[in-house]
Structure formats: structure tokens, C-alpha cells
Amino acid sequence: MLSIVKRLINFSGKYSLRLKWAIIFSILESFTINGPIIFILYGLIKINDNTLVKEDVVIAASGVVISVILRALFRRLVDGLQSGTGYKIFADERMKIGDYLKKLPTGYFTEGNVGYISAVLSSDLNFIEEHGMSTLSKIVSGSIGVIISSIIIIILDYRIGIVVSLTTIASFVILDKLFKKSSENSMKKQEVQSKLVSAVIEYVKGISVIKAFNLEGQKSKATYKSFKDTRNILIKLEKSLLKPFLSLDVFIALGTGAVIFLASYFVTKGTMELPIAFMMMIFIYQIFLPFRVIGSALPLGRIMIAGLDRYGKLMEEKILKENNTEVNLNNFDIEFHRVSFAYEKEKVLKDISFKAKEKTMTALVGPSGCGKTTIANLIARFWDIEKGSIKIGGIDIREMGMENLLKNISMVFQRVYLFNDTILNNIKFSKPEATMEEVIKACKKARCHNFIMDLENGYDTIVGEAGATLSGGEKQRISIARAILKDAPIILLDEATASVDPDNEKHIQRAIDELIKEKTIIVIAHKLSTINDADQILVLNEGKIVQRGTHGDLIRKRGKYNDLWEKRMEARSWKINTSVS
Ligand SMILES: Nc1ncnc2c1ncn2[C@@H]1O[C@H](COP(=O)(O)OP(=O)(O)OP(=O)(O)O)[C@@H](O)[C@H]1O
Predict the structure, then answer these.
(1) Residue 123's Cα: distance from chain center in Å?
(2) Which of 90, 113, 114, 413 has its CA 20 to 30 A from that of 144?
(3) Name one GO molecular function term (predicted).
(4) Contact call for residues 352 and 388 (beta carbons, < 8 A)
């Protein structure tokens, strides 16, 4: 129980002092709760002894009134300190999470992990945010209430005091064990919930493929399974709480019965005065009240601890080391020196070394899966390498800080992500301070100004979720406009594949020609159409550079590149022939 309080206070960071004060006032409040009973008992004893005088009535009455006023005052202070604190803690924490997620390697954001992150950030943190403060208050005031009431009972009659204390301690131990079971189920609940989120994300994202290949039944089955698993574990969690709650009621009933029986027995034996026995019978409901409060707070506390553990695990993921010293680059040569890299166990890049001189074009070619995209992603430090170094302008990219690095790089990839915002904001995203003239100039160069102007609201048109209302080619051109506006000295470019129609491809090619003027370019070449002009072509195979040189050199050498080139030519003539026939 103490561990729950400790964890919540530790988690509250700079607000922990507020919470500690709230706990102190909670303790004081618990003292005042018993005040009226004690003062009434004082009056009753006086009546029983036939010694009641006017002053005793004043003492008892004012004692009751002062206790009630103080109780209200302390409660007000507790509420004042706690109210809003939970929301403030989480507002800060969410900002921290935002910064933290930015520092995680992009590779971390697989669908499984996205499910985990969403479940932690939405269900776990929301649960703690909603119930954290009230649970803390219940546990603290409940425990103090039980302790104070036990002390009062011991003072009134040590025999009953011992019975009550032993029952209380035994019940706490048993309850804690039972609630541990519910926390195991809570862990399972989180697991199935993160699987559910992943399944739903996958289903929604892949809905067009699912429909195109008639996989609805198959994929729905997997999603329904996640729904069912979640339902089953939630029912199990509820059931696992029934037993401890039932036991709690049994303990309260037994404890109450025992005290009433003992008090009556002691009165008949003449070892207890009647007012004390009378008060004891009233008081017994008071002592078991906080007990019930703790009982209701404990399972919530355990669920929160499990949530905090998961949150802690998320925050322990290895982030990219940051070095924020401002680095001024004299040139934008890119240099790989003996770079090896593995996403998981198997190396996908093996001992890669090359230099891309500034303002030149380096093309990466090779069969699918040979590591072209990985090389481009490593330049933008989407992952950190295990061996070797990647330098820009002679400085290791790990030494320059992400912001510093990324301000020098523009990436134009085939999968374009547009935010659900206006076209203007999507383009200005790369340079928020850009003027309208600059945006239009960039869009004209990227061959997208005309189609934007044809839209009903022009640049103010809202792009649908993930850019759904624009064609693939249009989205590409917008992403090129974004890059032109950014005007970064390094361009990482994924050459368009056959998914774009010839007209769009022509526009995109012109837009790219505008983008790459005077830049250091790394191009992932799929169709080999761009690379005739490349200053250097790196031919990759199974994560190694197997050939390098210009197009002319490599054609003459008759190696892997020549094979790829011939295959490409064959494919083109095959396409022409089939389209003619
Ligand atoms: N995020 C990832 N996690 C694990 N493995 C990955 C990841 N991304 C790529 N790989 C693997 O790394 C290898 C290199 O992939 P990469 O995407 O760099 O190849 P590529 O040459 O660009 O392929 P393509 O031409 O098909 O795009 C492949 O075996 C691929 O399956």
C-alpha cells in the first residue's frame, strides 16, 4: 500500500510537495473525523458518572463544533492542493513524452510498438490521470483513519482494541494478496489492449488492400480476435476483483459482530461501563468505514502501478544520443566509413565506405532489399549505426544534434505523408516563416501551383487525413515543393517507381530537376532513369558495395550493373512490344 503512495508521489515530480502537504492535511482531517464521537463519549461518561456540570456540556458541544469546522477546513485544503494537480502533472508529462518520442529512433515505431505506445499513453496514463489523486487520498486518509480508530479503541478498551487491530492487520495482508492477482490480470489487459490498437491501426491502414484482395473475412477475424481477447480479459479482471471485495465484506461483518458481542459480554460481566460499550458499538462502524475506502482504492492503485511500470518501460527505450552543440559545416560532403548496420540480428549493411562530394549526385542501385533505403535513412540518423562512422562536412552526424543535422537535409520519399491541414501549411511545414510569394515560387518550380489553384480553396484547401484527397503524383509534387522551400543543401531522394502515370512522372521529373540544382544528392534509383547523369553510382548487393563508378565506366566493366542495366532495357522493350501487340 505504501508502495502505491510512494510511486504516485515520485511520479508527481515537481508537484510532489503539494501532494505531501495534501497528505499532512489528510492526516489532520482523519483526527478531526473522530472528534465528535470522542466529545460525545466524554459527555456520556459524565452523565453515567452523575458528574455532569455546565462546563462539561460546553466542552462537549464546542468540541463537536470545532471538530466539524476543522474537518471541513482540512478537507478544503486537501481538495485545493489535489484538485487539478493530476491534470497539471500529466500536462507536463505529455510534453515530456512528445520530446522523448522525437528522440527515439524512427525504427522503433513499428506497428506493434505503436500499439504499445498508444495503449500506454491513452489507457494507462488517462487512467492514472483520472483516478490517481482520489486513490492517493483514499489510501492515505483510509490508512490513517484505521490507525487512529484502532488507537482510540485500544484506549477505550484494550481487549477489544487487540481484537480489532488483529482483525485489521490480518485482513490487510489477505486483501493485499488477493489484489495482487488482479494486478496480474491488469498486466494482461494492457497486453491485449496494445494488440487491439495495433490490429485496428493495421486494419484501417490496409483497408484498400483488404478490399482489393477480398481479405475482409481473414483480416476481420484477426481484428475480432483482438476484440474478443480484450473482452475476455476485462471480464476476468472484474471477476478477479469480486473475491477480494466479498472477503472484505465478510471481514467487516465478522469484525463488527465480534466487537458487539465482546462489548455486550464485558458489560454483563461488569468489566466495561455501559457508555463505553454503547460508544464502541457506534464506533465500530466508524473504524470499518476507512477499511472499506482502502479496499476500493487498492485495486485501482495496483492497476496504476502496473500502468506506471509500462510507462517507465517505454521511457527506458534507448534514445538517440543528442549533442546540441551548434556545428557550422564548411561543406556538405557525405562520407560513410566502414559502416555496418543491423535492424535486428542480421546485418543489412556490411562494411560500407564511400564519399559523396558536395554538389554531386550519388545514385544507389541494386536489387530489392540490398540496403539502398537503409543507407539514405542512416544519413538522416533514423537509426544509429553500430560500427563505423557517417560524416557530413567532416563531422560525425552523432556529434551534431538532430535539429542541426535535419535542417541540412530534405527527404523526398515515395510514401508522402501530408498532415490533415491546409496545403499551404503542409508546404510551409519545412519553413514556417516563409512568405506566400516564396511558397508560390517553390510550388511553381515543383509543378504543383496550377493544380493547387484549380482546387476550390486553392492553397487553403484542407488535405484529407494522410493526404487522401490528392493523387499520388500530386502529393509527391507537394512534398517536392516542401523540399524546394526548405532549400537544404543535402537531398535524399527516392526515385519514383512505376506507380505514377507517365504525365505525372514527367512533371515530377521536372520538379526534381529544380530541386536538385547545386545540392548534394543521394538518389535511390529504382528505374535507372536518373542515373545516366550521376557523378557516382554505387551498386549494392546483399548489403555490400559490389561496384562503383559512372554509368559509362560500369557499362564498360560488364558486371552486376551491366546485368541490371540490360534487364532494365529488356523490360522496357518488353513493355513497348506488349503495348504495341
Ligand atoms: N524497419 C526495418 N526493420 C527490420 N528490417 C528492415 C527494416 N527496414 C528494412 N529492413 C530490411 O533491411 C533490408 C534492406 O532494406 P532496404 O529497404 O534498405 O532495401 P532497398 O534496397 O531499399 O529495397 P527496395 O528497393 O525494395 O526498397 C531488407 O532485408 C529489409 O527487409
Answers:
(1) 10
(2) 90
(3) ATP hydrolysis activity
(4) yes
pLDDT confidence bin for 578, thresholds 50/70/90 = very low
> d(Cα 494, Cα 51) in Å, to the nearest integer?
98
Count of CB atoms situated within 10 Å of the CB of 222: 13
Residue 469: Cβ within 10 Å count: 14
> How many angstroms does the Cα of residue 323 sit away from the middle of ligand 1?
28
pLDDT value at position 210? 63
* Amino acid found at 300: L
Give the whole-angstrom CA distance, residue 147 versus residue 464: 60
Atom of ligand 1 nearest to the CA of 371: 18
The larger pLDDT score, comparing residue 565 to residue 332, is at 332
| pLDDT(573) > 60 | no
Minimal-distance CA residue to ligand 1 atom 18: 371
Which residues lie with the beta carbon below 6 Å from any ligand 1 atom? 107, 343-344, 348, 366, 368-374
Instruction: Tell me the best of 109, 374, 540 to mutate to test the pocket of ligand 1, counting ligand atoms within 8 Å of each CB and taking the most.
Output: 374
Q: Which CATH class is domain 1-315?
A: mainly alpha
Q: How confident is the model at residue 580 (pLDDT cuts 50, 70, 90)?
A: very low
- State the pLDDT at residue 73: 94
Q: What DSSP string describes 177-242?
A: HHHHHHHHHHHHHHHHHHHHHHHHHHHHHTHHHHHHTT-HHHHHHHHHHHHHHHHHHHHHHHHHHH
Residue in this structure with the C-alpha cell 517536392, named with its chain if needed: 480
**Reduced DSSP (H G I as helix, E B as strand, rest coil) percent helix, strand, coil of the chain, to 5:** 70, 10, 20
Domain boundaries, the chain: 1-315, 334-573
**pLDDT at res. 497:** 53
CB atoms closer than 10 angstroms to residue 130:
14
From the list 46, 35, 66, 31, the residue with the least C-alpha distance to 276 is 46
Q: Does domain 334-573 have CATH number 3.80.10.10?
A: no
* Same CATH fold assignment for domains 1-315 and 334-573: no
pLDDT of residue 520: 92
